[in-house]
Amino acid sequence: MMDHTDQTTVLTHAGVMAMLAAAIAEAEATGQPQCIVIVDGSGELLGEVRMTGAKYLSRKSARSKARTAASIGAPTTAIPDAVRAPIGAATGGEMTALPGGLPIKVGGVLLRGIGVGSGSGDQDVAVGLAALRAIRAATEF
Which of 36, 43, 78, 98 shows the greatest Cβ crowding within 10 Å of its Cβ? Predict the structure, then answer.
């Protein structure tokens, strides 16, 4: 008899909050307020924050970064140069190659994505990595 089920690892609301808290702490340490968005595997919002002083339009780019990482299972910067502009245009800005989008994988399974925006690309990635470290025991980078 075939087993048609699979085990699912769930990022709980407590995990989302831990990720947001760690991301905020990293952003505060660098002095750069950020927009931080966490989505599930289908791109639906799990949690977000726009820190005081973060650029309001960066909320949209952070969401696109999170959804892109969740969709491709890789950092947003993994999108090849040749398709960066066309994929952004084809998706109405829903996909982006801007730095700051990271996948959240548990046990080799892509579950979620996080996107960070409002700082430099390096700052955005550093804040995203801090969030991933908050659940490191189960997360692969």
Answer: 36
Number of domains comprising the chain:
1
CATH number at residue 48: 3.30.450.150
Per-residue pLDDT of the chain (141 residues; tens, 9 = 90+): 566 666 667 888 999 999 999 999 999 999 999 999 999 989 999 999 999 999 999 999 999 999 999 999 999 999 999 999 999 999 999 999 999 999 998 778 888 999 999 999 999 999 999 999 998 744 444
**Which range of residues forms the domain containing residue 87?**
13-137
Question: Is residue 60 included in any domain, yes or no?
Answer: yes
Which pTM does this prediction carry? 0.91
Report residue 96: phi and psi, to 5°.
Answer: -150, 155
Which amino acid is located at 94 in the chain? Answer: E
Structure tokens given for 27: 């952003």
The reply to whether 95 falls in a domain is yes
